[in-house]
């Protein structure tokens, strides 16, 4: 079953990557993630555990901005910066 992701900003998403439990979308400087948030997997600093169907802005370190690529593995997503 397909479920729309709420919370993504309009017109700014240039990268999308998904994995088994969720995914992330980004625009080169910011990333929004959704899905399973066990052990702060979404990277938003929230202590909420469970599945989030609304995208949350991820807290990237300044050293990761701007980033070149957004990639996901089996249960995680990462940004790649040069």
Map the helices and strands.
Blueprint: E1 15-19, E2 22-26, E3 31-36, E4 51-57, E5 69-72, E6 77-80
Antiparallel strand pairs: 1-2, 2-3, 3-4, 5-6
Throw out a few tags for this protein.
82 residues; 4-stranded antiparallel β-sheet; 38% strand; mainly beta
Continuous helix count: 0
Low-confidence stretches: none
Measured as a percent range, the helix fraction is under 10%
The major β-sheet equals: 4 strands, antiparallel
**Which value, in Å, is the CA radius of gyration?**
12 Å
Secondary-structure element series? EEEEEE
In percent, how much strand structure appears in the residues? 35-45%
Distance between the termini: 37 Å
Class per helix and strand makeup: mainly beta
- The strand count comes to 6
Q: Average pLDDT, to the nearest integer?
A: 82
Give the assembly state of these chains.
single chain
User: How are the strands ordered across the major sheet?
Assistant: 1-2-3-4
Estimate the global geometry from the Cα principal axes. Answer: globular
């Amino acid at each position: 079953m397909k479920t729309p992701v709420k919370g993504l900003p309009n017109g700014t998403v240039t990268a999308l990557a998904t994995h088994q439990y969720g995914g992330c979308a980004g625009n080169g400087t910011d990333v929004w993630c959704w899905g399973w948030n066990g052990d702060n997997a979404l990277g938003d600093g929230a202590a909420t555990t469970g599945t989030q169907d609304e995208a949350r802005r991820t807290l990237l370190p300044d050293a990761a901005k701007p980033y070149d690529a957004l990639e996901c593995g089996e249960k995680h997503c990462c940004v790649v910066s040069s």
